[in-house]
């Protein structure tokens, strides 16, 4: 336990507060950057989902820089912002799967700091799984009632997440090669 009479006590709290403030600022900046990139759309699918200019990269980058906990927090916040900006919300479970849970999964990249490309693959694959469950459970019955719901959901979600994954892997690879992933840590 720290002694409040110790002159180093205030220094320890100050250092902790500075680091916390820095991380909160990073989360804000990276979520804002991801949101801005989400408006640069290459292709939009009719029932949601789009190929963007690497909109997941800032969340993946933050997770790789700061770890999975910070990455998940940033991903959940980004998912909530995406829900506010372009909602495809039809019921609570579908909304949770498609927004905070799916985007929060991007933070799983933080488990792979030493292997950034693997982190991108894991984070986006986990996001795909959330959208796949939502699509098979909810959207297939509405938009493709005569198709197998699992096939429909897999094809639909892969049609935009695979290109997004390729874009994200390329950008993260370049950031890693340039050592930008760890700058200012």
* CATH top-level class: Mainly Alpha
Number of domains: 1
Query: Structural class, judged by helices and strands?
Result: mainly alpha
For the biggest β-sheet, the strand order reads 1-2
| Total helical elements | 6
- Major sheet details: 2 strands, antiparallel
Structure summary, number of beta strands: 2
Low-confidence stretches: none
List the helices and strands and how they pair.
Layout: H1 8-38, E1 41-44, E2 50-52, H2 57-66, H3 68-85, H4 92-104, H5 116-143, H6 149-177
Antiparallel strand pairs: 1-2
Helix pairs in contact: 1-2, 1-3, 2-3, 3-4, 4-5, 5-6
Report what the structure shows.
This protein has 6 helices and 2 strands; from the N terminus they run H-E-E-H-H-H-H-H. With 185 residues, it is mainly alpha-helical. The chain has one domain: Arp2/3 complex 21 kDa subunit ARPC3 (Orthogonal Bundle). Helix 1 packs antiparallel against helix 2 and helix 3 packs across helix 4 (92-104). The chain is globular, with a radius of gyration of 19 Å.
Q: What structural keywords apply?
A:
6 helices; single chain; 185 residues; 2 strands; Arp2/3 complex 21 kDa subunit ARPC3; mainly alpha
Quick gist of this model?
The chain has helices at residues 8-38, 57-66, 68-85, 92-104, 116-143, 149-177; strands at 41-44, 50-52. With 185 residues, the chain is mainly alpha-helical. Strands 1-2 form a two-stranded antiparallel sheet.
């Amino acid at each position: 336990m720290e002694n409040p009479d110790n002159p180093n006590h205030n220094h320890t709290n100050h250092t902790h507060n500075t680091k916390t403030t820095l991380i909160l600022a990073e989360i804000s900046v990276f979520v804002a950057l991801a949101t801005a990139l989400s408006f640069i759309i290459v292709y939009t699918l009719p029932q949601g989902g789009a190929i963007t200019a690497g909109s997941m990269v800032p969340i993946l980058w933050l997770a790789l820089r700061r770890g999975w906990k910070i990455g998940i927090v940033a991903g959940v916040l980004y998912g909530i912002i995406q829900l506010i900006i372009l909602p495809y919300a039809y019921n609570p479970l579908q909304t949770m799967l498609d927004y905070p849970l799916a985007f929060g999964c991007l933070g799983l990249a933080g488990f792979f700091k030493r292997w950034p490309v693997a982190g991108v693959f894991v984070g986006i694959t986990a996001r795909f799984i959330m959208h796949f469950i939502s699509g098979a459970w909810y959207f297939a019955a509405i938009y493709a009632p005569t198709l197998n719901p699992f096939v429909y959901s897999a094809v639909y979600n892969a049609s935009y997440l695979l290109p997004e994954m390729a874009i994200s892997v390329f950008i993260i690879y370049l950031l890693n090669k340039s050592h930008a992933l760890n700058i200012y840590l």
